[in-house]
Amino acid sequence: MTDAAANSGPDKGAAPKRSIFAQDARTKRRNAAEARFRAYGLAAVIVGVVALILLLVSILSNGASAFRQTYISFPVTLSEDRLDPAGNRDPAEMARVTTFGYLPVIAQAFADAIEAEGLAHEVGLRSLADMISDEAPAQLRNSVLANPDLVGQTLTVEVLAGGRIDGFFKGRVTMESAERDANVTPEQLQLAQALAEAGMLETRFNWDFITAPDASGQRPEAAGLGVAILGSFYMMLVVLALALPIGVAASIYLEEFAPKNRLTDLIEVNISNLAAVPSIVFGILGLAIFINFAGLPQSAPIVGGLVLTLMTLPTIIIATRASLRAVPPSIRAAALGLGASKMQSVFHHVLPLAAPGILTGTIIGLAQALGETAPLLLIGMVAFVREYPAAPPEGLFDAASALPVQVYNWTQRSDPAFVERASGAIIVLLIFLLFMNALAIFLRRRFERRW
Amino acid sequence: MPLFWIIVLLIVLGAVGYVIGRRKAMSSAGGDSRVLHSLPGYYGANVAMLTLVPALLVLAVWLVVQPMLVGNAISHLIPERVVEEVGSRDLVLGEVRRVADGLDQAVAQGALGRDEARSLSTEVTNVRDRLAEVGVALGSDVRPEVLQAAQRYRELTASANVARAFVVLLLAALGLAYAYVKTHQEFRARNSVEHGILAILLLASTIAILTTLGIVLSMLSETFRFFDLYPWQQFFFGLEWRPSFEGGSELGLIPLLWGTLYISLIALLVSVPIGLFAAVYMAEYASKRVRSVAKPMIEILAGIPTIVYGLFALITVGPLLRDYFAEPLGLGTSSSSVMTAGIVMGIMLIPFVSSLSDDIINAVPQSLRDGSYGLGATQSETVKQVILPAALPGIVGAVLLAASRAIGETMIVVLGAGAAARLSLNPFEAMTTVTVKIVGQLTGDTDFSSPEALVAFALGLTLFVITLGLNVFALFIVRKYREQYE
Predict the structure, then answer these.
(1) In this protein, which residues make up the domain named ABC transmembrane type-1 (chain A) (predicted)?
(2) Which of A38, A49, A404 sits opposite B297 (nearest CB)?
(3) Is the pLDDT reported for residue A288 higher than 80?
(4) Most-buried pick from A279, B156, B298, B374 (CB within 10 A)?
């Protein structure tokens, strides 16, 4: 398109005779620059998309295995003289036998089961016990205490395999790495392989990862997300209950009633500033005001919810104002013309018409709040919590964890098996986010209205 | 009376008020709602509003003020000796509160009688064990003064709670009675209700101001406390960051600021070119189909929580950079480095730059492009010489916003950049930022009277001021130099 410009010199006669399809050097250079520029743009887009794909693939491939877990099943005889020395089936008496009392019972039963299966191995009793998760004696103890009549019976138990054995079946632990690892030996892995072939050991879907509470740093195989999911859910309840009404009320005032004066100017500037304040500053605010000043408990979903509410408010206000503005003035004029008051025209006509947009904005704000981590670290949500919080409203004041903080927590632990857990937790988080965003898109599509 | 029941009672009162207010209005009009000034519902709503709103406001203020007053009242019960032993008055008060809560729980569970809880003394019983029985864990044995203060605290709180219930419910009843008496056929109920609602709306919108005020005040007061304990010159100009909880810490801001700016610079070096080129491509070159796929995909990057990027930096990018760049080049052996955090943060910022720039480029009118093409410019020449200059203020604004994001970002640097404060130019070394240190100083058991914990507030204030400055500057540039097109 630019040849004409390049070829038309002031002196037409001097121009050499040639086809306009033949490009001169300058045109070639300019066209090459054009192609390069275009390629840069394409490359930038591709880099962005590839980064996204890389990110998701990395997390998914690391975390998918957290949803599968290795279990070992074998028969255990619950001998009376070990587990109920008094012999009266009184749960209080039996509670004196600690998990250390159950450990040899399980270890012996496991050894017997391997012998019965006829598997040759060179693993000592102590190392055999190490192949089973430390969680197993505690689980067995709980079920015995819940049902004392089990004592004396032989039942088939299904226990979690130890973290390294589990890692072997997921490819995280290999024979070579086992030689260098103090926590597992190649012999144990060979035995585990044999157990799997004999059908005593299997890897299957792990519901406990989603429902169980967190576990200590020594037993990654038992760590779950139950408390974190519940805590996140409670915080979302608080955010929804506070941010939506306050945000909508503030937007209605600013969009429909506010006079143009210093106060409303101040409010407007403040809201746009708050949207850009780093999230960690909100954490400091929560710590100083809600915990140190107001004396609310640390690690409680109520404090997390309040902090996230303050963070989410600007998002909701901006979205709500946009959707209030999108309602055409004719609607208001018609309502006013029929004798409605200003307040009635807003609450009876404008607000219902803006509701889908408000809802979409709220969901997006909630999704943002759900993934926020930094402020929650400061208000003590990093605490190790094993008890489920009670039902709301009391539960809002109980200690809990939150999904993104649980991820952070697990990345700080030394056992590499927790990296898998952290990635798994992120998958759960992303699934929630995906669901929320899909809901927002669905609502927008469903109720989209052209005036 | 517990808070929960006060609120339930208030709601019941409000509902009753609504019903009787409405009924009185109707009967004063002889059952003909046309005679009333407002719709009947407004009379009810007016009564309910006057019942609930003042009572709830007083309740809210009470909830904030009561613990402070009670704290002051018991403060004199604690001798200086104990304060010195524990470290600070706040900590002792916290202990008092925990013991008092423990006693409350013990009474609630029936482990202690009411009188027993009041007369308990440390000489007779081991309070710590008694409380442990009901599941209240105390760190150390309870001092007699603390127990006394806790008992006094319980008494004061109990009587204050009674007073609270009384005052709040009385106020609600008064409001109800007043509004009920005023309810009459000619009373302008709608106007009254609408004024009330308007006040509530205004109150809601001032929350933004209150939040900002809260941020500034809480950080300012703690920062001043910090500067009482630690000289400000050493904080702002110190070149060493070596906190130690035994005392003798060096808390210099410069190394943290250096790490923050270095990481942000790398993040911007990654995100600005990529974001800008992506925006230009999508606005000027891409076909509709490509645009409809690529734009949302890049925008997904903005919606992913930062902890996900942090983990990505930790498990993928960090080891990758270490194995293929840092170690072969002999620049370091750490997988957490400025480069790791910078690159990952850059990826996170791409959509901020690209979306904003995209909007701005789209806002440049077609006539400018057509004019440029008409003069014989190629498309890329048009972009470089016409569109980008026209869109420049907006793009600068977008970059500044991205920069303020980068400076305030926490989780990526916590997981990707390490925790070592150093002043170094090597991008493959671990460094740390202001945000990481805020997290570091404030997590775990912290004693809010030591400069090591309080420094976090000074850091937070610095961060707040820097990002606020950048944001205001960005807005200023966008507003001042924005081209207005028809």
Answers:
(1) 229-440
(2) A49
(3) yes
(4) B298
What confidence score (pLDDT) does residue B1 get? 64
**Residue in chain B lying closest to A311 (CA):** B211
Q: What does the pLDDT look like over B134-158, one tens digit per residue?
A: 666 666 667 777 788 888 888 888 8
Amino acid identity, position A387: E
Phi and psi (nearest 5°) for B242? -140, 75
Task: Give the span between the Cα atoms of B302 and B348, in whole angstroms.
Answer: 6
Q: Band the pLDDT of B444: cuts 50, 70, 90.
A: low
Q: Specify the CATH number for A225-447; select among 3.40.190.10, 1.10.3720.10, 3.40.50.300, 1.10.3660.10.
A: 1.10.3720.10
Q: Which residues between 386 and 405 in chain A have a beta carbon less than 8 angstroms from any beta carbon of chain B?
A: 393, 404
**H-helix or E-strand spanning residue A160:** strand A154-160
Which residues constitute the domain of residue B143? 3-218
CB atoms A423 and B315 under 8 Å? yes
Alpha carbons within 13 A on the beta-carbon side of A6: 17
pLDDT in tens, B313-329: 999 999 999 899 888 88
* pLDDT tens track for A90-134: 777 777 777 777 888 888 888 888 888 777 777 777 777 788 888
CA A251 to chain B, closest CA, distance in angstroms equals 7
Asked whether the beta carbons of B420 and B431 are under 8 A apart, the reply is yes
Nearest to A108 by CA among A83, A126, A123, A95: A126
Q: Residue B310: closest CA among chain A residues belongs to which residue?
A: A408
The pLDDT value given to residue B123: 61
Structure-token match 């070829």, residue found: A7
- Domain assignments of chain A as residue spans, ordered by start: 66-205, 225-447
Spatial distance between the Cα atoms of A311 and A280, rounded to a whole number of angstroms:
10
- Closest-approach residue (CA) in chain B for A2: B376
B161 with B117, same domain: the answer is yes
Among the residue ranges A51-65, A92-106, A337-351, B176-190, the one predicted with the least confidence is A92-106
